[in-house]
Amino acid sequence: MLSNIQEVKSRGGKIITITTVDSKALKDLSDHYIFLSNSVNVLNAITPILTSVPLQLLAYHIAVLKGCNVDQPRNLAKSVTVE
User: Fold this and answer.
1) What pLDDT does residue 78 have?
2) Is residue 59 part of a domain?
3) Residue 66 pLDDT > 90, yes or no?
4) How many domains does the chain have?
5) Alpha carbon of 28 to those of 15, 23, 59: distances in Å?
6) CB contact at 8 A, 32 and 16
């Protein structure tokens, strides 16, 4: 994984790391490092849910900054019919 991050960084990409594992190597490579502590004895089963919330917020704010309509995304198939 570190080699993939180094490749992205060498091509000018910004590295945003959200992790539950405290790693000095990741911290050094990252432009922004978010460590989610597991000090509350959270079950490993719900850890993916807790880590996906920051990613969803990041995607939302990037879409808003780019001027995309977050309420009507492009190419989304209609799955619910309103009567």
Assistant:
1) 64
2) yes
3) yes
4) 1
5) 10, 9, 24
6) yes
